[in-house]
Specification:
By secondary structure, the chain is α+β, with helices and mostly antiparallel strands. It has nine helices and 16 strands. About 40% of the residues lie in helices and about 30% in strands. The protein has a six-stranded antiparallel beta sheet. Strands 1, 2, 4, 7 and 11 form a five-stranded antiparallel beta sheet that branches. It is elongated.
Length: about 475
């Protein structure tokens, strides 16, 4: 029987033969794309413009606040410093000490001046940010020149929460009303100016600290460290760069495309990819065998079935269609590979084709090659046995050394008649076998000899002992 690798090779040949041009074009396109990617990635990647930071100035500012305990109490010692708190006690530490700390960072800087100015703002604000009244008071102003990167500039001032609360009460008393909400906060303006990276650069920032009076306490809310960066950039032209996918994918596509195009070109030039008619018929049979697998059973038919007249089907599909129409089954003989359907007094048979190269083993028997083993070939073996025995009897001599002509004549007559009947009944079958073996021999003489020897051995092994008895009875 044929093997799966042989069938796969035939199907591969069929695909390559039918689609060789399309496969070649696809491989060439793949190689062209790969070549383009290789060229634009590794040979001439081109250039692009991008922004590059030439210089930068980063300014950081923050409020640092604390309050000193001035009144004796049971918890805090007089003179101790309460710092970094959100809430302070008005009675024991009414005065808040505040420092505005400013520093900057730059790769190179010169003639840098830092200015810090803080102002106390008291205002009454209504809905939609309507300001009913506002009062400001300068607190501190500090200007420092030639400040180095990383150096800290401090501007200090003090806020007396009791005095601020009294001032608000006085204003509201003078106005006679307070339509909105009174706010108290400190706003600080920081300006840094100088040459950074050889270029004149300026940076400004504003930060606020809010004071909320709650009677015996006051709360401080400040933004923490506030950082602002001023950068100067310029457009520069740089070589374009690509990721790993394109860098390695391009050469891989080129290699695969070239190998594929070369392989398909070599295959079409050096090998005959076109399938022979027998090979196409074989693949058609294998397709039918797979499609109608559920309609086919495998077992050996009895010898008596092969005594019926035989009709040959043109394809396995025709045999299955006939079996379905006649409500019968299709049987595959595991010894011969032939398919049979029994209906009425006839046996309908399909013998699978066996194209050259359908089997990997040169000496293996192809599908359908061992035809007639269950019927016709058994009859041919019986006739061959009778002929050989008849010939042996005709050559026998008596005790005086003379040949027994009468026996020879009788035996010759008795064997001629069945021999002729056998030739009429199985001659076409044996001719088919000889043609199949001869076809195999055209490709490989050694494979043909092995196949013929295997067929002869099978006939000897399958000879029915009843045929030998019949031959002996004839004598």
């Amino acid at each position: 029987m044929s093997s799966a690798p042989s069938e796969r090779r035939l199907r591969l040949r069929a695909v390559l033969n039918a689609q060789s041009t399309a496969i070649l074009v696809a491989c060439l396109l793949l190689a062209a794309v790969g070549a383009g990617l290789v060229y634009t990635t590794h040979v001439d990647p081109g250039t692009t413009e991008e922004s590059r930071t030439v210089s930068s100035l980063t300014v950081e500012s923050e409020y640092r606040h604390s309050a000193t305990v001035t009144e004796p109490n049971a918890v805090f010692a007089t003179g101790s410093v309460l710092d970094g708190r959100d809430t302070y006690f008005t009675r024991i530490a009414p005065e808040l000490d505040v420092d505005v700390a400013t520093t900057y960072a730059a790769s190179s800087a010169e003639n840098v001046t830092v200015e810090v100015g803080s102002t106390l703002v008291i205002r009454n604000v209504g809905e939609e940010d309507t300001v009913y009244w506002r009062e400001t008071e300068p607190l501190a102003s500090e200007t420092v020149s030639d400040v180095a990167p990383g150096e800290t500039v401090n501007a200090s001032f003090a806020l007396n929460s009791t005095a601020i609360d009294g001032r608000v009460a006085s204003i509201e008393e003078q106005l006679g009303a307070s339509p909105g909400e009174t706010e108290t906060f400190v706003t600080t303006e920081v300006a840094v100016d100088g040459r950074v990276g050889g270029v004149a650069t300026a940076s400004t920032q504003t930060l606020d600290m809010t004071l909320t009076h709650g009677g015996d306490t006051y709360s401080v809310s400040e933004p923490g460290v506030q950082s602002d960066t001023t950068s100067r950039t310029e457009r520069v032209t740089v070589e374009r760069s690509y990721g790993a996918l394109r860098s390695f994918g391009g050469p891989l596509l080129l290699l695969v495309g070239l190998l594929g195009a070369g392989g398909i070109g070599y295959a079409t030039r050096e090998f005959d990819l076109a399938l022979a008619p027998a090979e196409r018929e074989y693949l058609s049979y294998r397709d039918d065998r797979s499609e109608f697998d559920e309609w086919i059973t495998t077992f050996r038919l009895p010898e008596s079935v092969h005594d019926r007249p035989t009709a040959e089907a043109g394809s396995l599909r025709d045999l299955v269609d006939f079996a379905i129409d006649n409500d019968t089954g299709v049987v595959e003989d595991p010894r011969t590979g032939a398919f049979h359907a029994v209906s009425g007094e006839f046996v309908y048979t399909y013998r699978p084709p066996a194209p050259n190269g359908a089997s990997d083993d040169a000496g293996a028997e192809p599908d359908g090659a061992a035809i007639g083993r269950d019927g016709d070939l058994a009859a041919a073996d019986s006739v061959s046995t009778d002929d050989s025995r008849s010939a042996g009897d005709s050559d026998s001599v008596d005790g005086s050394g003379s040949t027994d002509d009468s026996d020879s004549t009788d035996d010759s007559d008795s064997t001629d008649e069945p021999s002729s009947a056998a030739d009429d009944g199985s001659g076409s079958v044996m001719n088919w076998v000889r043609d199949a073996i001869s076809s195999e021999a055209s490709d490989s003489s050694e494979a043909s000899d092995s196949s013929e020897a295997s067929a002869e051995q099978d006939r000897d092994d399958r000879r029915d002992p009843d045929d030998w008895d019949a031959g002996d009875d004839s004598h």
